[in-house]
Amino acid sequence: MALSISLASSRMSGGYGGFGASGGARLGLGLGGGAGLGGGLGLGGGLGFGAGGGLGFGLGGGAGAGAVLALGGGGGGALVASPAFAMGRAVSAGGLGGSAALTAGPASGASVTPILSRAAEKHTLSGLNDPLEAKLSHLTGGTDVSQESSVTATVEYEAQLSEYRSTLETLTIDTVKLEIELDNVCGTAHELKAKFDFEQGVKFQLESDIAAMKKDIELASDLRIDLDAQYSSLKNELDFVNQTQEEELSSLQSKLGATTMDTSVSMIEIDTGKSFDISAALNKIRMEYEKSVQQHREEAEAYYKLKVCTQEVLALSKCLIILAFQLIDLILSTYRCLCFQNMTLEQSLAEAQAQSSVGVAEYQAQIASLTSAIEVAKADLHKQILAYQELLDIKLALDVEISTYRKLLEGDDFK
């Protein structure tokens, strides 16, 4: 009996080796285990044996085909057999066929042609299972370290998670504070905007009031000037009237003084001569004086009324003149605006004419180029028509020759 054993690494995360055996009894036995740590812990082991009678059992996860039983288990990764563990694929359904061969990876084990008995197979299997059980116990004994590492990783994960949670809570609180501050700032901004709008309205109202007051002040100043002029004219008239009355009064007093002297003389004459009625003379003089005063008063009143009417006419004329000047200023401002608009329109017209002239020149150039292109195309078309006519003539001549040759050929065939 010949036996070959080979060891090879199993393709598993943190994988352990695999064990394979081949013998003349076409028996396959394999053990593979591996452990992987990466957010989790996995441990697996597998044990399998097969007999020609087709007996099989499994523990964990595994599959048996034919006379071969495979046992396997794993955690944290999938167990993929190495070339040394790929056994039993060529085993026939009977498991003990003479033509079946068992291979164990790249090991250079020799296949045994003699067939072993049932007792020899059992002895061989028991001898091979002992080291496999030792391997399995060794693998299962390392679970404490894996559990400790898993607990440590869990504790670290929880600590990191709590730190992240505290950071998240802090950021949430800061976000709420910032939102509250933002709302406060927005409210303050709205209040300031409302105050600004109110102040703008007050400012506009004050400006309008100031403009109206300026107009009132201008009108009041004009009225004051007119009243000053009227006052000066009336004062002059009053002075003139007073002076006239004083002159008349002085003249009357001088007359009355002369009359008194005459009266005294007459009284003296009365005493010496004939009697004279003085009271009648005084009454007559008084009546004349009152009549003269009344006449002068009426003349002064008429003159005053005439002056007042003249001043009113002058004031009205001044107001009309002021309105005329204002109208002239308005007309001048309108004229300036119209002149500016006219200048702007003339500039726009000049620009439009320049642009239109440029556009017309471009279009004329395009028309000239298109006209020349049309002429060239017409010349090319005429040349092509001539060439086509020549080709058509050649075709007709060739058709005639072909028909002639065909007739000649038909005549030869007929002969």
List the helices and strands and how they pair.
Elements: E1 3-9, E2 15-23, E3 29-37, E4 41-45, E5 64-65, E6 68-69, H1 118-141, H2 143-272, H3 278-414
Antiparallel strand pairs: 1-2, 2-3, 3-4, 5-6
Helix pairs in contact: 2-3
Pfam families: Filament
Function: Vimentins are class-III intermediate filaments found in various non-epithelial cells, especially mesenchymal cells. Vimentin is attached to the nucleus, endoplasmic reticulum, and mitochondria, either laterally or terminally.
InterPro entries: IF_conserved (IPR018039), IF_rod_dom (IPR039008), Intermediate_filament (IPR050405)
Structure overview:
With 415 residues, the chain is of the alpha+beta class. It has one domain (118-410). Helix content is 70%, strand content 8%. The protein contains 3 helices and 6 strands; from the N terminus they run E-E-E-E-E-E-H-H-H. The strands form 2 sheets. Strands 1-2-3-4 form a 4-stranded antiparallel β-sheet, covered by helices on one side. A two-stranded antiparallel sheet has the order 5-6. Helix 2 runs antiparallel to helix 3. The longest helix is centred in the C-terminal third of the chain and has 137 residues, at 278-414. It starts with a strand and ends with a helix. The model is unreliable at 1-113 and 258-275 (pLDDT under 50). Belongs to the intermediate filament family. Vimentins are class-III intermediate filaments found in various non-epithelial cells, especially mesenchymal cells. Vimentin is attached to the nucleus, endoplasmic reticulum, and mitochondria, either laterally or terminally. Keywords: Coiled coil, Intermediate filament. It holds the Pfam family Filament. One of its GO terms (molecular function) is structural constituent of cytoskeleton.
